[in-house]
Amino acid sequence: MRIRPYDLDYKEYVIYRVPMDCYHHAVHCWNVSFRLRPAKRLRRRISRDAVLLSAVTRTAKELTVPYRSVNPATGEVLKTFTEHTDQEMMEALATADKAFASWATLPVDERAKIISRAAQLLLERKSELARLATLEMGKRIAESRGEIELSAAILQYFADNAAGFLAPKAFKSAMGDAHLEFSPFGVLLSIQPWNYPYYQLSRFVGPHLMSGNVMLLKHAPGVPQCAVAFEQVLNDAGVPKGVYTNLFLSNDQAGALIDDPRVKAIALTGSERAGEALASRAGRNLKKSTMELGGSDAFVVLDDADLDHTVAMAILGRFGNNGQTCIGAKRFIIVESMLEKFLPRFITAAKELKLGDPLDESVTLGPLSSDSALQLILRQINDATSHGAKVLLGGNRAGTVGAFLEPTVLTGLTPDNPAYKQEFFGPVALIFSAKDEAEAITIANDSPFGLGGSVYSIDIARAKRVASHIETGMVFINYPDVSWPDLPFGGIKRSGYGKELSHLGFEEFVNKKLVLVPTIPA
């Protein structure tokens, strides 16, 4: 969105305020881009959203909004980082391009030793890395440790399995003797979000470094210390210079990298708006891309569900990671005969969540990632209720310090309510009643998103049948959505395209070359 400029004497900075593309599903901070042009006199034109940058003599780098590490539980600024200059970015790209030749030809078992060592280092540094994630984005400390363990498991999985994934595959054909060979693309650009600051990196690094690619990584501005710490783990594991490079970049700089012919492919986990912009730019350059753009997953409760188990899974699925999970259960679709049984128990369990300092082991719900995230979701709640939704629990900021939101339950959302098809990226559950199984499927599919979902029933065959009719990339039976190294991860519709993890994710950024020896006459 263009902001009306402040025209300054001698020079004019025309300021644009746009959402950071790597922030996931919500606007948490802003990026500033600018250009210079002469101005004859001082003029100040005020716009509601404008940002004033005072000193006109400072360099472009000094004027850039820094990457900031802010504790969302207290609001304390922990550390700031300055964005890399264009020259530093292009030097990093040149180094990566040069490093590709040697990394791609390094035997896969040698690459595996390095990535396996990185997995080991993650575990050895689990305590310090987990604390850093909790301080930067508010994840409960136990969940931060779990994220480190999962990240290490992902790296180890691809270290163990890459050789098999890269082995030539026979391809049956009436034309003759055929096989597929797999080779890396080259330099990849990855743009990642804050909500899982290590896992998001690991699920990109594991498969795509093991396949022989090299990469430039633009992490979210809210978790710069996690970004630096992860890069250090790889460096200490022996990853050669240029194979993996963390960069603090603006949106414009990321766009310039997409345009550069040395960058061969792009991967984004982020917002719909960021996906539209980056996919469009990648398309103009005819470059492969993958997009994971979030979701509003359905949690479908059938009339024969195990109630105690289902309520426990609902709490885990909605309030895990403080409600900030792309595959979190967000829309609870309950068959009418179960609604009066499920809802009171769910609300009671949500009330029992303990809000507080995420470093406290006894706390069961921490803050949102930032005050901006809190303000956004409060506006969503207000908008939903102003259009007829009812608050059954919470709905307010908790306390005055930190980005805390009360566990919230909303019901009465009709299709004409703007919130009906929105993603709530925080501890907010939307409750829908369905008269029967068929209507539950209809409500589940009435969404612009299609990332994950889950179905609850003691009849597994029935649950599988329902799952087959839900329009989404992943469905889990009697368990909320999960991510694991050998399970493909990805969605459809406005949740994006492409797969991550498993052999399917491994193959996203390799050339699958056909080699054929014909056996039929020409």
SSE inventory with pairings:
Elements: E1 6-7, E2 10-13, E3 16-19, E4 30-33, E5 36-39, E6 43-44, H1 60-63, E7 67-70, E8 77-81, H2 86-105, H3 108-124, H4 126-137, H5 141-166, E9 169-171, E10 176-184, E11 187-191, H6 199-210, E12 214-218, H7 224-237, E13 244-247, H8 251-259, E14 263-269, H9 272-284, E15 288-292, E16 297-301, H10 307-319, E17 329-335, H11 336-351, H12 371-386, E18 390-393, E19 408-411, E20 428-434, H13 437-445, E21 449-450, E22 453-456, H14 460-469, E23 476-477, E24 492-493, E25 496-497, H15 502-506, E26 510-518
Parallel strand pairs: 11-12, 11-14, 12-13, 14-15, 16-17, 16-22, 17-20, 19-20, 22-23
Antiparallel strand pairs: 1-6, 2-5, 3-4, 7-8, 9-10, 10-26, 15-25, 18-19, 21-24
Please summarize what this structure is.
The protein is globular. The chain contains 15 helices and 26 strands.
